[in-house]
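Quick illustration, no need to memorize.
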Amino acid sequence: MSRTASVLAAAALLAALGCEKKLDEAQIRAKVLAEEAAKAADARVAKLEQELAALKSGKADPKEADKEGLAQAKADHQKALERQLAEQKKKAEARKQEALKLA
């Protein structure tokens, strides 16, 4: 093998190793970002669960004078929180699965 061919082969090998390293770094970054997104989704789920529990226990009362309006507002708020909680749980699970795929 000539010296030029050896140099070109070595350069190609180094380039391939460099690309592999960049790919590994990109995969690591993607994994870290996916894990952070999963943690954030879990935190949103926990916050919504706490808010819903407080609302159900009567600790979180909207400040309205009308009792009927208050009851309706509480029921609407509870339904909205339950929908948000279900949606956030789905998103959190999807992000967890994505993080597991990247692991």
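The first helix runs from residue 3 to 57.
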